[in-house]
Amino acid sequence: MNAPILKTSGLTKRFSEGVLFSRREVLAVRDLDLEVFEGEIFGVLGPNAAGKTTTLNMLVGVARPTQGSIELFGKPFVAGDTAPFARIGYVPETTVLPGFCSVHDLLFFFGRLFGCPKALLRERIKYLLEVTGLTKERHVLLKHLSAGQRRQVDFIQALVHDPDLIILDEPTVYLDPVILQRFREMLLGLKKAGKTVLLSTHSLTEIEKICDRVAVLDQGRCLKVESREEFMKAGGMEEEFMRIIHHED
Amino acid sequence: MRIKTAWNDLRITLLIGREVYRWATRERMMYGFLLLALLFILMANVPFVVDDPKIFSGQDPEQAAVHIGFVAVHIFIPLIAIFVSVSVLQSVLGRENLILLFSKPVRSWQVLGGTVIGLFQMVFLNWVLMTTGLWFILVSQTRELTGYLWAGMSVALIMALLCISLTIFFYVLVPNALAGILTILMLIAGLGGPLARETFSRAADPSLFARMVAASTCLLPQVNALWGVSMTALGMFELHLDVGRVFAESGAFIIVVLAFAFVQFHRASRF
Predict the structure, then answer these.
(1) Beta carbons within 10 angstroms of residue A221's beta carbon
(2) How many domains does chain B have?
(3) Residue A60: phi, psi to the nearest 5?
(4) How far apart are the first and last CA of chain B?
(5) For B119-178, what is each residue's pLDDT tens digit?
(6) Residues 172-231 of chain A whose Cβ lies under 8 A from any Cβ of chain B
C-alpha cells in the first residue's frame, strides 16, 4: 500500500451551542483516527449529524480541531499554514456562488487564487467543462444555472488547479442519474490518474460503486474502517451499515 | 523568496478585492443612491438659473452650487459606503463563502484586506461620478476649470474609508445589518464629540468623570473636522483647522479600527 496522504490521530472537535444558561457543549468529532492512502477513493459514510462535515472542515483548515493532529502529504498540518491547500481541492456541503459571475469567470478566479498561469488555466477550464458537459454554459451567469449544474460547478472549482487530494462533501446532491454516472466516471478517472479522493456521503450507492475503503462514522466516532469488499462479504453495504449503526445504539 | 511570497500574498488580496468590487457594483441599492445623488447634484444648476438674490442670501451662484454639491457628496458617499458595505459583507463574509475561500491558500487578512479594497474601489467610482457631475455643471456655467473642487471633495473619500472601516469592524463583531446602524450611530457620536469635549473640559474644576468623558471623545471619528477641512478647501467657510492633524487623527482612527477588525476576524473566522 502507498504512504498515507492524509492521517488524523485522536482528532476531536468540541463546540458550545445555545446562549447564556442554555449553553451546552457538543462533541462533534471524538478521537478520530483515519488514514487515507495515495491513489484510493476513500468513503466516509454516516447518518446525519455523524460529524462528517466537521471532520472534512478540519482537514481543509476551515475548522480548528480541539484536540488531535492532522498530517497532510506526510507533514504535520499546522494551523495557519496554507501551503498544503495548494494540493487540495474541496467541495463543501453547501456553497453560495455569486450569481452575477459567469461559470468561466468564477472558475478563473478560483484558479488564479492558486496562482495558476492564465493560459494553462483557460485550457484546464475548457477541458473540465467538456468533461462535465458544461461547455455550452461556459459564459452563462451562475444565477441562471440549475441546482445540479451549480453543483457541477462546485465540483469543477475543486479540480481547476489539478490537486492531488480531492475532498468532497455530499457532492452528489441535486445530480440527476445521467450526471451522476458521469460524475462516477470522473472520480474513477481521477483515481486512475493517481489522485486521492475522500468522499463524504450518506448515499450507499456511491460508496458501493466507487470507493476502495469506507469509514463508518456515527455521533462523531469512527465505528469501522473496512475495504468495500469486506463490507460486501458481510452481506452488502446497506445491511452492514445498518448493523454497525444499530449495534452501537 | 520573501519578496515573491509578499507579492503572491498581495496578488491574492487584489484578486479578492476585484471580486468584492464586482460584487458591490452589482448592488441595485448602490445605483439607487447614485441616481439620487446625481439628481441632487443636478440642482447645483439652480443658483445659476435663478436671478433672485434673496433665495440664496446674496450668495455667489458658484458658491451656492458648490454648497449643494458638498451636501450631496458628503451625504450620499457615507450612505453608499455603509449600506452597500453591509449588503456585500453579508455575501462575502457569509459562512459558505468563507468555507470555500479558506479551503484555498487564502489567509483571513487577505479576505478582509480584499474586502476593504473592493469596497473602497466601489465608493471611489461613485465619488468620481458625483464629483465629475458637479464639476461639469460648474465648468459649463462659469467657464472656469474649478480645480479646487476635486481637492475639496476628496475629503469625502477619507470619510468613506472611515465608514467602510467602521462597518467592517461592527460587522465582524455583529454579523448582521445592525453593523450599519452602529456605524451611523458612531458617526452621529462623532458629530457631537467636539461639543461634548468642550462642555466637559470647560468646567472650572472638572471631575475625574468629566475628564474621562472629555478624553474619550478623542476615540470618536473626527466628522466635524473632516467636513471643516472640506468646506475650507471648497471656499465655503474660512475655518482655521490643522489639516495635517485632522488627517493624521482620522488615519490613525481608521488603522486602529481595521486592526481590531482584522484580529477579531482572524480569531472568529475558523469555525
Answers:
(1) 16
(2) 1
(3) -100, 15
(4) 32
(5) 999 999 999 999 999 999 999 988 887 889 999 999 999 999 999 999 999 999 998 999
(6) none
Phi/psi for A45 (5° steps) reads -115, 145
**What is d(CA A173, CA B252) in angstroms, rounded to the nearest whole number?**
49
Residues 107-166 of B with CB under 8 A from A: 107
Phi-psi region of A19 (alpha: psi -120 to 50; beta: other; left: phi over 0): beta
Taking an 8 Å cut-off on Cβ atoms, the answer to whether A96 and B97 are in contact is yes
From residue A232, how far is each of A147, A237, A246 by CA, in Å? 33, 6, 18
Chain A residues whose beta carbon lies within 8 Å of the beta carbon of residue B104: 82, 85, 90, 110, 113-114
ipTM for this prediction: 0.87
Q: Report d(CA A228, CA A9) in Å as an integer.
A: 23
φ/ψ bin of A76: left (φ > 0), alpha (ψ from -120 to 50), beta (otherwise): beta
The 8 Å CB, 24+ separation contacts for A232-237 are A232/A208, A237/A204, A237/A207, A237/A208
How many domains is chain A partitioned into structurally?
Answer: 1
Return the CATH number at A209: 3.40.50.300
Pair A186, A131: CB distance under 8 Å: yes
Backbone angles phi, psi at B50, to 5 degrees: -80, 130
Mutation pick from A53, A82, A165 vs chain B, by most beta carbons of B within 10 Å, is A82
Rounded CA separation A76/A61 (Å) = 12
Q: In this structure, are residues A13 and A53 in contact, taking their beta carbons and an 8 Å threshold?
A: no
Residues 15-34 of B with CB under 8 A from A: 15, 19, 22-23, 26
Grid coordinates representing A88? 487540495
Domain range for residue A104? 4-248
Q: For testing the chain A interface, which of B103, B115, B266 should be mutated: the one with the most A CBs within 10 Å? A: B103
Q: What is the span of the domain harbouring residue B190?
A: 2-268
Contact between A212 and A227 (Cβ < 8 Å) = yes
d(CA B195, CA A238): 74
**Which residue in this structure is represented by grid cell 458658491?**
B63
Q: What is the DSSP string of A76-101?
A: EPPTT--GGGGGEEEE-SS----TTS
**For residue A2, what is the DSSP state?**
P
Per CB-CB distance under 8 Å, the chain B contacts of A95 are: 96-97, 99-100
Name the pTM for this structure: 0.89
B84 within 8 A of B119, measured Cβ to Cβ = yes
Tens of pLDDT, residues B11-60:
999 999 999 999 999 989 999 999 999 999 999 988 888 877 666 666 78
